[in-house]
TrEMBL record:
Keywords on record: S-adenosyl-L-methionine, Transferase
Transmembrane segments: none
Pfam families noted in UniProt: NAS
Protein name in the entry: Nicotianamine synthase
InterPro entries (UniProt xref): Nicotian_synth, SAM-dependent_MTases_sf
Transferase recorded as keyword: yes
Keyword S-adenosyl-L-methionine: yes
Source organism phylogeny: Bacteria, Bacillati, Actinomycetota, Actinomycetes, Pseudonocardiales
Organism field: Pseudonocardia saturnea
Length: 307
């Protein structure tokens, strides 16, 4: 894991003080003045992609895959210096884009889960999943972030909002030896994820639970209390307020040594996932904030329960 810490030399991190820190020897980038041209073109294209996707049923197809692929690329790698202007222009469309992204991600994961389970060689089929590399990179980044604050590789992990293709948990179980519990409010999604795990020969456990309920189920409370890591998926909680409510409940039941990872987003990536800042989570002690500048879409908050 110490080699993974070198990842942190190429990303900007923020501590509890919320002051930006840039790695030694890497100058902070300057955003050039755009004059509006690139910003307008980027905003117009994002709106066009939104409208194009709204004319489909969002199920995987060449047209849908190409539109989502371009949408993700634009959000991850926009022209220099346009982010603020594009976000201003896209403000009326943020909810539309996030709904499309959430629905499309769910349909894509279900399609690939069925495809993997039905394949003669499920493990080989999983290797064909177009975003597998992104998940592998995200898990490496998250493990490096945990190591940077002294938490290390987790042995017992609870993944909240695992979905029908629970790649994070599968990677942690298969490649890092973690005991993983997948949690989702959708029984069908959880069943699909369990079928994928069984098909590729990776042992995980599963539990149906709705984190928006007034109280967490007793079985889940017990699991969180003895977990090394609890990971809150980017689509769990529609906004910062919902994530605050959920993480406050988690902090109440987490063990003293339990790490909490909250996936969030920054820049144009907030058009795809809700943005959550350390200040939005007063129920947690946020130890580290990591913002990748690669193809990885999600940012990460590493936290603990206070005290």
């Amino acid at each position: 894991m110490h080699n993974d810490c070198h990842w942190l030399l190429w990303i900007i991190v923020t501590t509890q003080s919320s002051q930006a820190i840039t790695a030694i020897g890497v100058p902070a980038p300057r955003a050039p003045r755009d004059g509006g041209g690139a910003a307008d073109r980027t905003a117009d294209r994002l709106v066009a992609l939104c409208e194009e996707l709204e004319r489909t049923d969002l199920r995987p197809s060449p047209v849908v895959d190409a539109a989502f692929g371009e949408l993700v690329r634009l959000c991850c790698h926009p022209p220099a210096g346009v982010i603020g202007q594009v976000l201003d222009r896209l403000a009326p469309h943020v909810d539309r884009l996030r709904r499309l992204s959430s629905a499309g991600e769910g349909l894509m994961e279900r399609y690939w889960a069925d495809r993997i389970v039905g394949a003669p060689d499920p493990a080989a089929e999983l290797e064909q999943f177009p975003y597998l590399g992104n998940y592998l990179d995200l898990v490496r980044l998250e493990l490096a972030a945990l190591d940077a604050v002294g938490l290390g590789v987790p042995r017992r992990v609870v993944v909240l909002g695992s979905g029908p293709l629970p790649l994070t948990g599968l990677v942690l179980a298969a490649r890092h030896g973690a005991e993983v519990l997948h949690v989702d409010r959708d029984p069908a999604a959880l069943a699909a994820g369990t079928a994928v795990a069984e098909a590729i020969g990776t042992r995980t456990r599963a539990m149906v639970a709705d984190l928006s309920s007034a109280a967490l189920p007793a079985e889940l409370v017990a699991e969180i209390g003895c977990a090394d890591l609890v990971l809150l998926g980017a689509l769990v909680g529609a906004d910062a307020a919902a994530k605050d409510a959920i993480t406050t409940r988690l902090a109440d039941v987490a063990g003293p040594d339990t790490g909490l990872l909250v996936r969030t987003a920054a820049g144009l990536r907030t058009l795809l996932y809700p943005e959550v800042l350390p200040a939005d989570l007063p129920g947690l002690d946020v130890l580290l904030e990591v913002h990748p500048r690669t193809d990885v879409v999600n940012s990460v908050l590493v936290a603990r329960a206070p005290g």
